[in-house]
Write a structure and sequence with these properties.
Blueprint (H helix, E strand, L loop, with lengths): L9 H4 L4 E2 L10 H14 L9 H21 L7 E4 L2 H11 L9 E5 L8 H7 L15 E5 L12 H4 L3 E7 L11 H10 L3 E5 L3 H4 L4 H4 L3 E5 L10 E5 L1 H4 L12 E4 L4 E3 L13 H17 L1 H20 L4 E3 L11 E6 L4 H10 L2 E2 L1 E3 L4 H6 L5 E5 L6 H17 L2
Parallel strand pairs: 1-13, 3-4, 3-5, 5-6, 6-7
Antiparallel strand pairs: 2-8, 7-8, 9-10, 11-12, 12-15, 14-15
Helix pairs in contact: 2-11, 3-11, 4-5, 12-15, 13-15
The structure holds 4'-deoxy-4'-aminopyridoxal-5'-phosphate.
Length: 409
């Protein structure tokens, strides 16, 4: 892989920084920062509405990014690409809009390794709200869970049983805690065989490995720009066109309409029907630049680089006494995410002591409380890598962990 380190200004402004929190958010290369800056300096206007050159230029850039996203995930049409704030908003869009098609007792199959973003929106369809009265799924959908094994894999032993009555499978392609990569292609085939749809949470996978929606044959895919070198506040929902055509709008207002009367309105075509209001134009342009950058480096190369890091990292962790890495023994493919626990040390103390050495890791439940509960933990410290991390970063982390242990003995 080419030497990408100089492309990231943060490592110049913060020399010595060991950034191991990319699963939360990634650092930005100069190309992304410049794309947003150039847009504001040279081409800024609102999109779609203006009949003047500047607005046309802004629209061209915004729609150009949509095409960049389409190609990146190999969607059939830009009509299937909706810009949202991030993976969380994407799942909320699907739960709100596709959720209206679910009926009482329809089953939504989740996994125990889901991020809260792929749990809580579904709870709204399953639990009656005291304010709203009956839940939208006409009396309550049912949540069911694919178990996670001790080693950190999905337990698919009883998948056929689990799929009974399922209308939607909603699973992560890569766990933000265990790093486990799930075989969503297999799950898509299984889901489709029982007439269910499948949503893939790509918040962690899309930044780190090649993802092709046609190959996966998923019905929905969501991801966030900020975890893949792009800006915050921009993300993507991919939805197969034939499904989108059956869905009611998510939010209502300007841009998503064709015509408005006092008491009624008709909807704009796809994907605009799902993009109410002024979108995050600069964010979408920044995301396009991030994708160009990632493709320039090569998604296969990034994945290979992280495979080297995960092998190296797990080997280094395995010789540390009193340290447990969740999902270390997973048999599935795995990304370079190390959520770990040190005997007798609170994860927040781990985070603080590492921070004193300019090593940035996250401590907490990482928005995956049910998963932590499964492992009998409240929280872990988590080091997560990306294309700019090296084996030396892992060496520094391991030395830092030893210091943490010395401090607490
Ligand atoms: N799903 C997974 C697996 C994630 O890791 C995250 C972010 N931690 C999300 C969903 C939510 O992403 P965002 O906060 O960007 O909406």
């Amino acid at each position: 892989m080419k030497n990408i380190f100089p492309d990231f200004p943060i490592f110049k402004t913060n020399p010595g920084l060991i950034y191991l929190d990319s699963a939360a958010s990634a650092q930005k290369p100069q190309a992304v920062i410049d794309a947003e800056k150039n847009f504001y300096e040279t081409s800024y206007a609102n999109v779609h509405r203006g009949i003047y050159a500047l607005s046309e230029k802004a629209t061209e850039l915004y729609e150009g990014s949509r095409e960049t996203v389409r190609k990146f995930i190999n969607a059939k049409s830009t009509k299937e690409i909706i810009f949202v704030r991030g993976a969380t908003e994407g799942i909320n869009l699907i739960a709100h809009s596709f959720g209206q098609q679910l009926r009482k007792d329809d089953v939504i199959l989740l996994s125990e390794m889901e991020h809260h973003a792929n749990i809580v929106p579904w709870q709204a369809l399953a639990t009656p709200s005291p304010l709203r009265g009956a839940p939208p799924a006409a009396g309550g959908a049912v949540l069911r869970w694919i178990p996670v094994t001790e080693s950190g894999d999905l337990d698919l032993t009883n998948i056929d049983e689990l799929l009974k009555g399922v209308k939607l499978v909603a699973v992560t392609q890569m766990s933000n805690v265990l790093g486990t990569v799930n075989d969503v292609q297999f799950l898509a085939d299984k889901a489709h065989a029982v007439g269910a749809k499948i949503l893939v949470d790509g918040a962690q996978s899309v930044p780190h490995m090649p993802v092709d929606v046609q190959k996966l044959n998923c019905d929905f895919l969501v991801f966030s720009g900020h975890k893949m070198l792009g800006p915050t506040g921009i993300g993507v929902v991919y939805i197969k066109q034939e499904i989108l055509e059956t869905m009611e709008p998510y939010q209502r207002g300007g841009n998503m309409i064709l015509e408005v009367k006092k008491n009624s309105a008709t909807w704009n075509g796809l994907p605009y029907k799902f993009e109410a209001g002024t979108p995050n134009i600069a964010g979408a342009i920044g995301l396009g630049a991030a994708i160009d950058y990632l493709q320039d480096v090569g998604m296969e190369k990034i994945w290979e680089h992280e495979q080297d890091l995960v092998k190296y990292g797990l080997a280094q962790f395995s010789v540390l006494k009193g340290v447990r890495v969740l999902g270390a023994d997973a048999t599935s493919a795995r990304s370079a995410i190390f959520a770990f626990d040190i005997d007798g040390v609170h994860p927040h103390d781990i985070g603080s002591i590492l921070d004193q050495q300019n090593i940035a890791v996250r401590a907490g439940h990482h928005c995956a409380q049910p998963l932590h509960e499964k492992f009998g933990l409240v929280a872990t410290a988590r080091a997560s890598c990306y294309l700019y991390n090296t084996k030396e970063d892992i060496d520094v982390l391991v030395a830092g962990i030893k210091k943490v242990q010395e401090t607490f003995t």
